[in-house]
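Slide 14.
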Amino acid sequence: MGRILWRSLVVLAAFAVAACVALAVLFSLGGIWAGEELQALAAGDPMFRDFVLQGPAFQDPGFRRAVAMAFGAAVFVATVVPALTALPALAAAVTGEIFHVRSWMYYVLAGGASLAAIPLLAGAALEGPAQSIPASEYMTIFATAGFAGGFIYWLLAGRGA
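Slide 15: predicted structure.
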């Protein structure tokens, strides 16, 4: 009984750490991608270009990029956080524990698939013309974050499943 309780605590702690790593990767890559997209769109907007970019600080391309990345990260987090759920990743971790899977490849691929499923599931919940498959960059960001989370979970708990 003590071993089961200890293993449960290890699994929960490893899952929490892996989820935090996956979220950090997700928000970092997502912020960079959204910032680059916003920077490209803002350059062509005459109102934004004429009024916002006239400040002396905004003449520096490095500063302009940093502001776009920060704003992109805020937009990405605001649009992604409502869609996040840990259920697919939790199902993959529990399945690995039940079947005593010790392969790093299982946890990396299961983590990537579980996070890549989130935009697909969120898109399936929409009705009408808004329902579509997300952009490939979006799916790549989610899958990469899942790969990182799955690998961290394997390092902390999956090897001893």
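Speaker note: The chain is about 75% helix and 0% strand.
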